[in-house]
Amino acid sequence: MTTRCGVAGSPVGHSLSPVLHRAAYAHLGLDWVYDRHEVGAAGLAAFVDSLDASWRGLSLTMPLKQEALRLATRRSSLADRVGAANTLVFEAGGGRFADNTDVPGMAAALRERGIDGVPRATVLGGGATACSAVAALAGLAACVVVVVRTPGRAGVVRAVAEASGLACDVVDWTRADAALAAPLVVSTVPKGAADALAGAVPTAPGVLFDVLYDPWPTPLAGAWAAGGGTVLGGLDLLVHQAALQVGLMTGAPVPVSILRAALPGHAGAGSVGGAP
Questions:
Q1: Choosing from 65, 81, 240, 266, which is the catalytic residue?
Q2: How many CB atoms lie within 10 A of CB 256?
Q3: Catalytic residue list contains 191
């Protein structure tokens, strides 16, 4: 019986996860299958219930990260803390273990670029990915400003910051321009949402981590690089979190370099001005 894994989300057609996981399987000598599956939040429970015993793991992208946590029979403390899971591992006996590799993936990508600590950081957005970013920054920043369109709905991200021991201030999107002056800015908003901020990049920008990779570069990332700032992109996050997912699903480690090598056509997509 062929062992199966895959990525589910909506939209999911652009996902590069199959490329990365298949490269990992080739490196590990595993004859496993990994495909994309278009699944909306309302359909995730039925989709998971339909999977047979050949399934070992599922990667979750938006908008499924919170629903995946609810479907788990066992959860990591990290997934519980951020209220979102991007990984489901199917265990013997029908168990479903939920974990979050976005958090350590973000931290690893930043540390890889020599970013081990900053006095403050800004996070653009207040959704599930923003919660992961806040948790990742807990060991890297002394405090964080979270910029959202509706501060009154930011209770979840506040709770994540508190649980992570990170001082957090939530501000309205109208203050985003000023928040870009932080030494580290993490943009977790959807495609197009931060485009207007390209004109507000500081004269001496610090580090920008824009979690998007399609399209790339975003207007914000392009303007940031043009201003001399350091830019990380979605592929920087993707390869690190995918390597951790492979470890959870297969039980075997795979070097991040193997996953990067699988993306030769995207070598400059993770970072503006250099390979990720």
A1: 65
A2: 19
A3: no
Q: What is the 3-state secondary structure (H, E, C) of 198-219?
A: HHHCCCCCCEEEECCCCCCCCH
- CA distances from residue 211 to 42, 71, 114, 197, 232 in whole angstroms, order as listed: 25, 26, 18, 15, 8
**Angle of CA points 115, 120, 124, to nearest 5°:** 90
Topology adopted by domain 103-235: Rossmann fold (3.40.50)
Q: What is the pLDDT of residue 208?
A: 98
**Where in the sequence of the chain do the CATH 3.40.50.10860 domains occur?**
4-100+239-261
3-state secondary structure of 2: coil
Distances (CA, A) of 28 to 4, 22, 57, 264: 15, 10, 16, 20
The candidate with the shortest Cα–Cα distance to 208, out of 170, 237, 238, is 237
The position carrying tokens 């501000």 is 171
Whether residue 242 contacts residue 20, with contact meaning beta carbons closer than 8 Å, is answered with: yes
Asked if residue 71 lies in contact with residue 44, where contact means CB atoms within 8 angstroms, the answer is yes
Say whether pTM exceeds 0.90: yes
> d(Cα 174, Cα 68) in Å, to the nearest integer?
33
CATH superfamily of 4-100+239-261: Leucine Dehydrogenase, chain A, domain 1 (3.40.50.10860)
Residues in the chain where the model's pLDDT stays below 50: 267-269, 273-276
Q: What is the pLDDT of residue 270?
A: 52
Helix runs in the chain, H state only: 17-28, 44-50, 65-71, 77-82, 102-112, 128-137, 155-163, 176-179, 219-226, 234-250, 256-261
Tokens found for residue 24: 């990992």
Q: Kindly report, as residue ranges, where domains of CATH 3.40.50.720 are found in the chain.
A: 103-235
Residue 177 confidence (pLDDT): 97
The 3-state DSSP composition of the chain as helix, strand, coil percent (nearest 5) reads 40, 20, 40
